[in-house]
User: What shape does this take?
Amino acid sequence: MPKTLSKEYGRYSNEFKRLAVALTHHPDMLAVDIAEKLGIHPVMLYRWRMEMKNGDIPGKASLDEIESEVDLIQANREIRRLSKELKETQRERDFLKKAKRFFQAPNSKSSRS
Assistant: This one.
């Protein structure tokens, strides 16, 4: 009699589950898109959210802690964006200062001709 093949299912670590749930709280991302990128079914992701809410996944004490981590990540992204914008603005300012000096300097070459 032939043996039936049993399929081994991989288990996801609690850390992976917490990270996946944290990503669902990002305002610019849809849970369906996150599930697709992580290679999991969206229902699994929603189940993990419920398990986190009920405290069934060990780790962070609550969703509030995860949401505060997500807020921190968003704040860090905003700081990086603003730093880049500041550097660009400073380069533009420095260029305009140089241009101002160039156009205000007396043009001694043309007066000698």
